[in-house]
Specification:
Strand order of the largest sheet: 3-4-2-5-1-6-7-8
CATH architecture: 3-Layer(aba) Sandwich
CATH superfamily: P-loop containing nucleotide triphosphate hydrolases
Largest sheet: 8 strands, mixed
Structural class: alpha/beta
Low-confidence stretches: 108-112
CATH class: Alpha Beta
Strand content: 15-25%
Number of domains: 1
Distance between the termini: 6 Å
């Protein structure tokens, strides 16, 4: 990855494991002496489940040490509290903002203006990316956002452009512009997670086109859950059934003749799968983006699996 990348937005079709990849990336970026913030914006507490910890509050909390010895912090953004932060930051409402919360005005506002929620979420993430400590250095060396799915991510990230157009002047206009400057800058990259299957790959291609049209920086395509290669002939049709039965018999298997048919069926399915995967790899290569593959975790995405994926990402140069 280019060294100036500081905000990593991770998206992907549902079921591709984008939250797992985002968590692994946060770990991978936590090299010695570095600090990474992993942000969840969908309210699912998926990060807490992956790191086997209690539900995350609306505060930045250290949850792990990276393979390189750095620190990983996590934040689950609460829309209501983010709005209170916004009101205090730009309008100094203080107690008045809390009063709005008590009468339900905040829920009402985010319901009638769904885009407001996305403004708050992206604004909070960009604030964390830009934040500096008393020494003038960035508080976080990298921020990783577990973003909405591919079909919604461009609208989610671009909502501040719409807000800036609507509010021509004032703090809302300036805040929206500031967020878009971060999201469209060289320090941001939107990574898309996919599987070697037709629908996720097509959605990835569509997502890349939408992001490029919106002038949002596309980073890397991450192919997740890649099955290990299986040795053997590519075309089971070329296998001699009698030789296969003899080989099974010599291996000590009973009734080898009855096993030949099911084994060849499995081989045919595997050959078809390999052919389909090769076609999907070609589709992804045509996008003109870096493509990185992560293995299927046989034991599921537990904490040990996250560290395995993080090490693989570091081997890929993240």
């Amino acid at each position: 990855m280019t060294p100036e990348r500081r905000l990593h937005v991770v998206s992907g079709k549902g079921g591709t494991g984008k939250t797992t990849v985002a968590a692994a990336l946060a770990l991978a970026l936590a090299e010695e002496g570095r600090r990474t913030l992993l942000v969840e914006v969908e309210g699912r507490q998926g990060i807490a489940q992956l790191f086997e910890t209690e539900a995350l509050p609306y505060e930045e909390r250290r949850i792990a040490i990276g393979p390189g010895g750095g620190e990983v912090y996590a934040l689950a953004i609460d829309t209501e509290k983010a709005l209170l932060d916004y009101l205090q930051m730009f309008y100094k409402l203080g107690g008045a903002g809390r009063a709005l919360r008590r009468i339900g005005a905040i829920d009402f506002a985010t319901t009638i203006a769904p885009g407001l929620r996305d403004v708050l979420l992206t604004g909070k993430v960009c604030e964390a990316t830009r934040r500096r400590g008393t020494d003038g250095a960035f508080v976080y060396d990298a921020v990783v956002m577990d973003a909405p799915p591919t079909g919604r991510v461009t609208r989610f990230l671009g909502v501040n452009d719409e807000v800036a157009d609507l509010a021509k002047v004032g703090p809302i206009h300036h805040q929206a512009q500031a967020v878009m400057r971060v999201l469209k800058s060289a320090e941001t990259a939107v990574h898309l997670v996919t599987l070697l299957e037709e629908m996720p790959v097509q959605e990835t291609a569509d997502g890349v086109a939408e992001l490029r049209a919106a002038e949002l920086p596309v980073g890397t395509v991450v192919v997740n859950m890649v099955r290990p290669p299986v040795a053997g002939p590519v075309d089971p049709a070329g296998v001699d059934r009698r030789e296969l039965a003899a080989a099974l018999r010599s291996a000590g298997l009973r009734a080898p003749t009855r096993l030949v048919g099911p084994l060849l069926d499995e081989g045919a399915a595997h050959a078809e799968r390999r052919s389909l995967e090769a076609a999907q790899r070609a589709e992804l290569a045509a996008l003109g983006l870096p493509v990185r593959e992560l293995p299927l975790l046989a034991d599921g995405a537990d904490l040990a699996g996250l560290y395995r994926l993080a090490r693989r990402l570091r081997e890929h140069g993240w």
